[in-house]
Design brief:
about 150 residues; 5 helices; elongated; Sec-independent protein translocase protein TatB; transmembrane; transmembrane helix; transport
């Protein structure tokens, strides 16, 4: 920027006082000050816009690198998944051929589902009684009546 010292400022002020005159000098100084302020704000806005655009370019580059890395990871996962599926198919084919070769037929597992007799018989009654598991359903009113303190007559 322009290097203006104290002596140069005094020379410019003296020339302005002679050329403009003492009556108009304060108004001209105010106008020059506001114009310089507007120019500084404009320059700072331009700098901020340039910085934003540079940051935006950096973010776009970063976004591209992240997308490329994600694409590489996705491709590697797909290749490993396809290899796993191929290995799984080979393993199940060999297992199914080995099962077909066996003469004994093993029944398939059947989930008990909602067979309440099977579920009820799984835990012995004495264990349920000892651990406090309720075996009979009781309504709310019956429970209140059961645990209500008795009146003494």
């Amino acid at each position: 920027m322009i290097d203006i010292g104290l002596s140069k400022m005094a020379l410019i002020g003296a020339v302005a006082l002679i050329v403009i005159g003492p009556e108009k000098l304060p108004r001209v100084a105010r106008t020059v000050g506001t114009l310089l302020g507007k120019a500084q704000r404009y320059v700072s806005d331009v700098k901020a816009e340039v910085n934003r655009s540079m940051e935006l370019d950096e973010l776009k580059k970063m976004k591209d690198t992240v997308e490329n890395a994600a694409r590489d990871v996705h491709n590697s996962i797909q290749t490993s998944a396809s290899e796993f599926e191929k290995d799984w198919a080979e393993a199940t084919d060999t297992a199914s051929s080995a099962l077909q070769d066996q003469t004994a037929v093993v029944p398939a597992y059947k989930h008990p589902g909602k067979n309440w007799r099977l579920k009820r018989g799984a835990v012995p009654q004495w264990y349920k009684a000892r651990s406090g598991v309720r075996t009979k359903a009781q309504s709310g009113a019956a429970r209140v009546a059961r645990f209500r303190p008795r009146k003494f007559h």
